[in-house]
Amino acid sequence: MRRRNRLLGCIIGIAFIANAAGATPKHDQHRTVASISPDQKSATMDELEKSRKTTFDEAALVFVCEADLLRGAHEAVEEACGRAIALKPSDPTPHKLLGIARLIDNRFESAAYEFKRAVRLAPNDPGSQIGLGEALRGLDDYQGAVGAFTAALALSPRDGGIWNARCWTRGLFAKELRAGLADCNTALRLMPGHPASLDSRGLIYLRMGRLRLALRDYDAALAAKVKLPTAFYGRGVARLKSGDIQAGLRDLRQARSLDPTIDDAFAEAPLITPACNAALNTRFVRAVCMEPMSRVPESKKPQLPRSGRSAANDAAGQTGRVLTVTLSR
Q1: Chain-wide mean pLDDT for the chain?
Q2: CA dihedral (311, 317, 319, 325) positive or negative
Q3: Quick check: 154 and 125 in contact, CB under 8 A?
Q4: CA atoms within 13 A on the CB side of 135
Q5: Are 194 and 285 in contact (CB under 8 A)?
Q6: pLDDT surpasses 80 at 208
Q7: 210: helix, strand or coil
């Protein structure tokens, strides 16, 4: 199933990851092309190409790998990081960089493999645990994803992006909703007014059937002028359930125009029933879609067809979702 990545902005703890997928940086800058002035750019590119030709300097190859990730050259990332790993297998950084590139490309299985290697080499690095959580969520491994985010929080308990990533995961799967609400509340205490966290809490309230509170959070998230497809989608569903049919339909159209595959983001526990979806453009929409929202038992998951993945929320600057894009929320 497609998952909205909140990796970019929460994940990994390095700003160039967020930049690579168009998300807003939330952490300190590393030494990358993005952090240099225009006057330095030519010299830095010369340094980059010189480093690329190195044979024995592992640190130089890691620099090249970072720079290639920043500019979105993921094939070059594979080459540079692969060479760095061959020179120094004990360095977790190139494994993490490979994991990021693969995560951005929605190659979740191979991303999880690299993050697991990074975790083994540097078990006290919360960034690798965050990346692993994002990859496992993309593989529909709920317990594994929550476990990885929990491990990251043990290492970095004041990182609001990680709290948000765990909240969002619980909301997507419609599991442990009270715990998810607590996660989102903590995220918002640490990051007041954070749009992605408001979006996540809106989803939790929507799952709980607390429509007024869901609408409040969705309105606040969208008031930040960040075009979150999931927030438009969730608000549209909440409005339909509340009887505000035309406003709900407008929000759903907006969400689907921003991300044509937005429905897939919630395929594990759909927010719109097939009957409601079929009735959206008919005169029966009020009668069908105002029915009480069905609850998904926490011990069961619907078996629905799944489609491909995209990163529209990452491009909107969402983390942690843990990027968004789809750097996590």
Answers
A1: 79
A2: positive
A3: no
A4: 27
A5: no
A6: yes
A7: coil
Q: Helix 211-223 crosses helix 195-208 at what angle (to 10 degrees)? A: 160
Burial (CB count within 10 angstroms: exposed 0-12, middle 13-18, buried 19+), residue 109: exposed
Contacts of 135 (CB under 8 A, 6+ apart): 99, 102, 103, 108, 109, 111, 112, 115
* Token pair in block for residue 42: 């030519």
DSSP 306: -
Q: Which of 312, 321, 100 is nearest to 191 (CA)?
A: 321
Nearest to 262 by CA among 207, 325, 312: 312
What is the DSSP secondary structure assignment for residue 3, as one 8-state letter?
Answer: -
- CB contact at 8 A, 311 and 6: no
End-to-end CA distance of the chain: 17
Q: Which two tokens stand for residue 105?
A: 């490309």
Return the minimum-mean-pLDDT range out of 145-149, 191-195, 224-228: 224-228
pLDDT at 50: 61
3 state DSSP class of 118: helix
96-105 burial by CB neighbour count: b if 16+ within 10 A, else e? Answer: bbbbbbbbbe
Distance from chain centroid for Cα 278: 29
Residue 32 has pLDDT above 80, yes or no: no
CA 35/CA 24 separation, integer angstroms:
14
Give the pTM.
Answer: 0.77
Which of 35 and 178 is assigned the larger pLDDT? 178
Q: List the single range of 23-27, 101-105, 251-255 with lowest mean pLDDT.
A: 23-27
Q: Which of 135, 132, 204 is nearest to 164 (CA)?
A: 204
Sign of torsion over alpha carbons 303, 323, 12, 176: negative
207 confidence band (pLDDT: 50, 70, 90): very high
Please check the confidence at residue 281 and state whether its pLDDT lies above 70. Answer: yes
| Residue length of the chain | 329
What was the pLDDT predicted at 140? 93
Residue 299 in 3-state DSSP?
coil
